[in-house]
């Protein structure tokens, strides 16, 4: 099973959409709220070189944000990442 981590903030519509997309596909994920822990925000920035949320990682590989995740799902490439 793939390890999926989603860095989020409360009241973020794109974070909500990313979590809904993953849940709709029955993909388990760990949510890390960067608005509750500044160290986790710094960790996210270090790992992704991005400051926006959500930031999604599959098996420690940065995927990007919601738009990137949705594009992978639409193209069928998301399943390949999850099964690798």
From TrEMBL:
Glutaredoxin domain sequence ranges: 4-62
CDD domains according to UniProt: GRX_GRXb_1_3_like (cd03418)
PROSITE patterns assigned to the protein according to its UniProt record, in alphabetical order: GLUTAREDOXIN_1 (PS00195), GLUTAREDOXIN_2 (PS51354)
GO biological process: cell redox homeostasis
Record keywords: Cytoplasm, Disulfide bond, Electron transport, Redox-active center, Transport
Pfam families for this protein: Glutaredoxin (PF00462)
Gene Ontology MF annotations: glutathione disulfide oxidoreductase activity; protein-disulfide reductase activity
Keyword Cytoplasm: yes
Matching InterPro entries: GLR_AS, Glutaredoxin, Glutaredoxin_subgr, GRX_bact, Thioredoxin-like_sf
NCBIfam families (alphabetical): GRX_bact
Role played: Has a glutathione-disulfide oxidoreductase activity in the presence of NADPH and glutathione reductase. Reduces low molecular weight disulfides and proteins.
Family of this protein: Belongs to the glutaredoxin family.
Alphabetical list of PANTHER family matching this protein: GLUTAREDOXIN-2, MITOCHONDRIAL, PTHR46679
Protein name as it appears in the record: Glutaredoxin
């Amino acid at each position: 099973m793939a390890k999926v981590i989603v860095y989020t903030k409360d009241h973020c519509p794109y974070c909500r959409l990313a979590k809904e997309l993953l849940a709709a596909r029955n993909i388990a994920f760990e949510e890390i709220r960067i608005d509750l822990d500044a160290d986790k925000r710094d960790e996210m920035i270090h790992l992704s070189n991005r400051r926006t949320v959500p930031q999604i990682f599959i098996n420690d590989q940065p995927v990007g944000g919601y738009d990137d995740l949705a594009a992978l799902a639409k193209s069928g490439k998301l399943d390949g990442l999850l099964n690798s």
